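re the bet — no i am not wrong, look at it urself. input seq straight from the record:
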Amino acid sequence: MAYFDNIKLEKGMYGEGGRSFTDILEELDPSENYRNTQLEGLDAYQRQLKRFDIKVGGAMSDTVSKFFQTGDSAALFPEYVSRAVKQGMERADILSDIVAAKTVIDGLDYRSVVSAPTEDDKSLKPVAEGAYLPRTNVRSSDHLVKLQKRGRMLVASYEAVKFQKLDLFTVTLRQIGAYIARQQLTDAVNVIINGDESNSAADTVSTASAGDVVYEDLIKLWSELSPYELNTMLAPTAAMTKLLSMSEMKDAKAGLDFHGSGRMITPLGAKLLHVPGISGNKIIGLDKNCALEMVQSGGIIMDHDKLIDRQLERTAISCITGFAKIFPDSSKVLTY
């Protein structure tokens, strides 16, 4: 058993067999060994930060230069960058509210499964004795999921940031993560509306009056989505204004509930999400439990050697993701 204060750290620990830096540290220094100790609750990476007395947050956070005091501590820097970017992605995350499944692959080629049941398939009819049960066909997609690489280039010399507090530098990295998350959301919305490589574009539902949305239009969207559940709605800024301005959204009793509990009334009980990137007069309604699959190739990608050896000089931070529809008719687009 290795202890956290005598583990040899090196850049070769990154990208080893598809495992993360923290995964490898956990194998060498399992967290379960620290139960009922002062270090309980810290993961293997956080124990390494404690080993080198590196404080990455708070008013007393260290400067970037603290990572590069020794060769071992320098090997911790890429994981710090990766974690800060992930925090930014999580803070700007909407994908978890619209994705039914997330698949992580170790490569660039992935073929999803697809099921397009007919109306007859969706009804479970009585089966006579000895008769065959109705079938739901699930098959491999005819097309690979299109993966997109999204990221930002971090351009900064070590001299420019070495005396910068890590707490402040983390803000910049989180913002990069937020940029990536927003672009991934745009990719997901594009697949919902226009379909994936199998051309499964969402059916459109038109409003009664062009250019306007009334409550009856939302009921129509709800009924068109049946037998799927309308539990999530995506709307750009202009459409959000129209939805929240409906008289049904201003109910006095609902307003009291909002003031008392913070729960905002939403159309038909569906979760209403603001997505400024939706173009045109569109509102998306979907069943988040079966509409979309997110495919991700690995995790946050960056040049670990450059971060350790050259210390920040033009480092690309990116993530490769793609989206595929699972049940194509579990999402509809309301156009007005």
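see?? The first strand starts at residue 101 and ends at 105. told u. also The chain has eleven helices and eleven strands. so pay up
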